[in-house]
């Protein structure tokens, strides 16, 4: 290539060089197998972009420029009401218009919604009563505690909300993504129930205002003339009837159109703010009135008529009126009157007590029943400090309103912390000032009058308001209606969000809705749960219920923030910096304390509900990976535990079988021996690690997808067989090396396998399975050298599945040599499983001629007693038999001949020629080859050969063969032992459900591998299920505690 005058010159051979308009030459890739057409397309696509090096991976790795543009244009889609309104306005079948970018700022998007949600029914209906009962001091403590809790929660919530983009879903989304699906689902349901019961509370407050203060004559169950419990029941029944009617009406409004609710939200908010301003104005007016109209009056005649039957002095009067100095006083003396000192401390009342001025003792005859028929104000419930906390707490909830609208905010990460904290500061200031000002303005007797009976049936806070009590009455009525509608709008959407996440299977039906996305079924369920609160009918009883659910929700928000901060996960980078894990823990502790302060039994019920949901999601819910903090804790805890385990080998008491199950796969990547996993499951009482491993033949690059399929197949089978553990697939050039790699590298640190389970090669005698049994023997050798225990189930297909049950039978243990106690431990573990539970354990041990079998049995019984294992014991005496039967010789000979044939079949051409020359040289040296027992070399001099035609006991004939004709006399002895043991085992354990047997080790040299397999085959012949066991060279069971 030569350049002249800045113009490129194209050389017409070698790689094709293309020149783009910018004068930069580009090459098509000569080393990637792609079609010329696609090369052209890609090169055209990247012309002028200097991206040719990366063009092959552009499908999986997009250019940064395109990524940034898509990120910058990202907008959050809220699951609030906005898109539902748009869906309603869109015509059917038409494509929805592109959503405008969210425009709400901090004031309209967070601050005002939070104010509207926090100020509510409790402020208007119960705040004055709380100050009267608890005193200014006690009430201030309650308000301070509750407001501190919400402020600390808001700080934690701000940290979570500013740690990345929070889609709409608010607290549920934040908790579930921070603490995982189990906690998220549990807390999400609690938050949903809290919001639903809040709806019930607002409706009850709305009805209370309507029936007591606006139109008392509308009551269906008339209260006039009724006293005590009857009046109370009538009031509650009125609440139930009207509450149900209002709930139905509100549900219809929400169903028909959410847009109406949202449009009215500002009107309701204006009512709340106006009412609070009227109260402050009234407080200022009382101060002015006190200085201008300072007087004291007593209207005796009016009072006399209330308590006596006539105006005359000798009229019959009420007993309490005669015995006590009943006077009329100014209900609202004003800020400057000094009444604050009198209202400073609490005055808790029992149910039915007369509300009277503090510090003046009354003279009451206990035998005369008190009545409240237009004369006395009686306490309707027994009050105490913790009750006040439960009733008051709902008035500080609603701090999540801003985060719930995060999808509508222009800059959520800036608006949520500022708006929420500012709203809490404002409301807390109002609440705290109200506590002090109510105590300073209103007479204690009036404060304790819950329904304003002493002030002509007016709302107590209304009597304080300026210019008229009706400002507060109507303001609070509309605000409660609005809050009820908001709850009925928000709760179904929250349930729909949880349902659509799919973490709680039985709630999936509530994810569906109308064509525009309205959660119809969720609304129906919400209304049904809301009706439960209305049937309870008492505002004072419903308030603590929703306090529990909100407190639990706030507790987990704090926990989420604390965990993320302490774990220091790389993704934890909140934009809001004014948080600390200690503040989050303090908030969490406050929430937990308030739960039990409010009502310990409600707290236990709420926690029980959350625990049940948590466990349900854990066992039945969908697997979700949300990068949550609980996973982070698990990771940190696992790392810490693994490092601890590295400190040394486990004590014998802590030893448990950590099993590596080696399985083989067929051509379709399905497990060939699924019952291996059934047996593993039945041994799970050891609570140890389980790794199911397999090897795939090939190279990693070529066989990766095959390995992935094998892994999926293993996981599926493990799930079916309920095996808790891990799957591991290795790709290796041959199966032998693959198995060896699994044995070497399976597990991690101290959490490594100590036991290997591998199936007996069933068809090892077939020539095509030669390599299979060689691999098996190599596995036995490797486990021996690695000091791993080995379990070899024979006839694995006949083992029971997890669904089968043995109603009787025995598990027989043949304890021939001691190798660490594995033979004792395994039947104990098996009997913990329902398949083997009804089986009895029998332990057989073998006594030689010079052993004292009676003493052995006693010792074994004592040993098992100390091991706490319940088993029958039997000592089998092996009579020394110096004569080896001819059948043994025959079996040995056949075995050696088969070994030779198998060996010949697998020789290479050069090895074959070498073997032929070796045989020829042997034949030249020995004319008669020992191919049969009747050959001269195998026949004793002067002795006749006696054959036994069966392997039964000698029928009086004596075998006096010597084994000089056999190349390996050890083989004959081993065959003799195997046959004798098999004879004894078959006799005793033929009917046993399972036989556990010591597995002899393989020969040191590899020449006798085939013979070794034959010995094991003879040893286990005639037995249905055999588990051959080799210990790992260490004690696994101990008699010590």
UniProtKB/TrEMBL annotation:
Domain SLC12A transporter C-terminal: 674-784, 806-1041
Entry's localization field: Cell membrane
Region feature (Disordered): 1-46, 78-101, 922-959
Biased composition regions of type Low complexity, renumbered to the chain: 924-941
Assigned keywords, A-Z: Cell membrane, Chloride, Glycoprotein, Ion transport, Membrane, Phosphoprotein, Potassium, Potassium transport, Symport, Transmembrane, Transmembrane helix, Transport
Any one GO molecular function term: potassium:chloride symporter activity
Topology of the protein relative to the lipid bilayer: Multi-pass membrane protein
Signal peptide (from-to): none
Domain Amino acid permease/ SLC12A: 110-287, 376-660
Matches recorded under Pfam families: AA_permease (PF00324), SLC12 (PF03522)
Biological process per Gene Ontology, one example term: chemical synaptic transmission
Compositional bias ranges of the Basic and acidic residues kind: 81-95, 948-957
Gene Ontology terms: cellular component: plasma membrane; synapse
Entry's family note: Belongs to the SLC12A transporter family. K/Cl co-transporter subfamily.
Name of the molecule in the record: Solute carrier family 12 member 5b
